[in-house]
Amino acid sequence: MEVTRLSFALGAEVTGIDVSDIDAATYDVIHEAFLEHQILVFCDQDLTPQQQIKFSEHYGEVEVHLAKDHLHPETDKVILISNKRVDGRYIGAVSAGDYWHSDLSCQAQPNLASFLLARELPAEGGDTGFCNQYAALETLPDDLRQQIEGRNGIHTFNRMRNPRVKVPEMHKGDAKMRYADRAPPDGIHPIIRTHPETGRKALYVAHRFTVGIENMPDEESRPILDAIFEHQLNDELIYRHKWQLGDMIMWDNRCTTHHAYGGIPAGQIRHMHRTSLIGDVPF
Ligand code: SIN
Q: I need a labelling partner for 46 at 20 to 30 A (CA). Which of 153, 180, 230, 262 fits?
């Protein structure tokens, strides 16, 4: 097995390994690399849903995603991230990554890690960006950091409460059911969180879910969040992945955010299998 750094910002590629057939010592080596590099790209993985679940479960408990209409038909532990349609219905979450986010930061216990496996890819487009939130915090201007120190962010699943995001055209008709009715109570989390395993501090806010700062009027929190979101777009913090079939990326939601850039030509399919692990309450 070889682990090769992918970019200045974060990430490593792992080659020479079939994750469906590894021993306990290798799981541990992968865990160390995961904590160091924040995202790992495993190349050439031809995994069944059960094999992906088994690999994921070595690092925690797999969560059944709240978007029940997009779960894999054979197992509720895999969610489909896909623009495929069957009988006119989108079988997967099409817009899951359309804005920067950390998975389900809108929950009391957001996801620890996620695993995304590329099963079908378009000829172009469909890249995913990953942003290093340790580095985002370390490079944040002091005056901005002072304004968020000790503060909590408010995170919601409900797109209709977030002026920075749109309800996708295809979901305009059922937006209330899709975003408001299934939204868990707001996630209220430290804007600067401590990684429970590395002990390092990371920024923990992003466009898709963060809508405010607890105990701060919106007029005051809006420019602070806008400035942080702008800062997080700095190229030096981001690794942009161009997917190959069989790539599986494992990312650490406690110290990274990610975003699907889209740009898929009309009529082309991008079909991915995702598992996610239940995380701790951020502190
Ligand atoms: C996600 O946000 O989990 C999906 C990212 C992607 O589709 O690239």
A: 262
Q: Does ligand 1 have an atom closer than 6 angstroms to the CB of 82?
A: no
Pocket of ligand 1 contains residue 260 by CB under 6 Å = yes
Q: Tens digits of per-residue pLDDT, 59-86?
A: 999 999 998 899 999 999 999 999 999 9
Spatial neighbors of 87 by CB under 8 A, at least 6 apart, are: none
Question: Domain holding 267: CATH number?
Answer: 3.60.130.10
Ligand 1 pocket, 274 CB below 6 A? yes
Domain range for 108 is 2-278
The answer to whether position 72 is within a domain reads yes
pLDDT in tens, 199-211: 999 999 999 999 9
> Model pTM greater than 0.90?
yes
Q: Is residue 283 part of a domain?
A: no
Q: Given pLDDT bands bounded at 50, 70 and 90, which one contains residue 170?
A: confident
147 C-alpha to center of ligand 1: Å?
Answer: 30
| Per-residue burial over 260-277, b = 16 or more CB atoms within 10 Å of its CB, e = otherwise | beeebeeeeebbbbbbbb
